[in-house]
Amino acid sequence: MKTLVSYMLMIMLLLQACSDNEEKINVEIGQTSFKFEKEGGSSILDITANTQIKVESRETWCKVTMFTSVPGNYQYKVTVEANPLNEIRKANVMVTANGAENKIPVEQAAGDEVIPAPEPEKFLVRDNLTTQQLVNEMGLGINLGNTLDASGNWFDQSVQSNFETCWGSPIITRKMIEGYAKAGYSSLRIPVTWSNMMQPNYQIHPDLMNRVETILNWTLDCGMVAIINVHHENEWVKKAATDAEDRKKFTSVWKQISKRFEKYGDHLMFEPMNEIGYDEIWTPWGGTQVDKAKAFGYVNDLNQLFVDIVRASGGNNAKRHLLVEIYNTGDSYAYDPLTKIPNDPANRLALTVHYYSPANFAILGNGEDAGWGVGVPSWGTPEEIKELNDAMEALKVNCVDKGIPVIVGEYACSSLNRTQEVVRLYCVSVTEAIYSRGMCPMLWDVPVVGQYNRETCKFDVDPLFLQEMMSIPAKYPRNK
Q1: Is 275 a catalytic residue?
Q2: Which residues, in sequence order, are CB contacts of 325 under 8 Å at separation 6+?
Q3: Is residue 420 part of a domain?
Q4: Structural domain tally of the chain?
Q5: What is the DSSP letter of 193?
Q6: Which tens digit of pLDDT belongs to each residue from 421-433?
Q7: Does 262 participate in catalysis according to the annotation?
Q8: Which among 217, 137, 204 has a CA at the least distance from the CA of 172?
Q9: In this structure, are residues 215 and 171 in contact, taking their beta carbons and an 8 Å threshold?
Q10: Does residue 162 belong to any structural domain of this protein?
Q11: Domain check: are 145 and 92 in the same one?
Q12: What H or E segment, with its residue span, contains residue 69?
């Protein structure tokens, strides 16, 4: 690739440090700046040094890699991607030695921004569409689990892609998202941990926000309904009900999300949080009715705060269909008298619950000991199937039949030390029990041990799994 920068006058960064023999530390940098055209390209950075150096760029569109290296003489390749924006963008290549830092400016010419014409299915808000009708359109749903919601502290946290892959997922591609749609799935839940790389004053990192929007667009381009939430952030989200600083963070996060995605239509839904409960106050195994009312009240308060933020944010958010989090996402809590549905001027809310019952099969692998229980090998007795259908029928009678739409945002079972046959039986049975009662089932699926192969972009782990899943909608046709 043609180099776009001519070498400029040699500059020298002199870093002096006293050692036993008073030797000077010298670092000579061969370029004072780089300029690239809008198409991008690569240039070589020459450095001579008699000490260890670190060379990096902190912008994802400007990358620095080692080109050649011999003792004392180093060449780095500075590579810039094509500029999709109609504005000049700037970065710095940072050269660090002996604690001192030198910046080499990088500038790229503005690109030709192409703003596509709005696609109706992506930006359209249908005024007469009820939330139940949207749930009907969602058909069978699936989660992009352990991906944008992944986090950790054992890897380089300065790059967004490292978070995306740290729990075993390859980098998500358009082809992967298209694979869900081609298989027959009509909705995708996109869990996100927004605190990853968060900047001061609770500002969401632009790389994360951009990545979420990219994957969202791929989802909407496939005609699927998408759900974006706040995931794996329970510690501070819980406190937002009582602590002013965490409430400020909750408000800031949802204001930013609402503003960024305000233009998208009713194929995008928001979900405020994930599996929030207050076990330290109340559980089904301990606590008074007063304690229970207090714990449920906190979740009710957060739901109302969420609805108020989104509705006041402008754009299509005034009519966006939203989810309401049930206490600990327990299915029976959806119709508990202490669960309060928020006041919503748009009247476009659905309840979201999760289903992982029985816990010693759905949550624990076979033989896995969690202290509170040990995983069992199988599922599917008449009693177990009745328990499933009773739970889903209760949701139908107490919610759906009363005009309250329901989305089962997660369900699955562990495959650890189990046959694929019993995993398939459970997942297909739960899907049918949910779908047949007018609700949307969204399978919790993750890389490596899930049903979808993100390398081949197909459900080739168990072809019968997909075949049996996709036979369900045909059995129970819906009016959309």
Answers
A1: yes
A2: 271, 272, 273, 274, 276, 299, 302, 303, 352
A3: yes
A4: 2
A5: -
A6: 999 999 999 999 9
A7: no
A8: 217
A9: no
A10: yes
A11: no
A12: strand 62-70
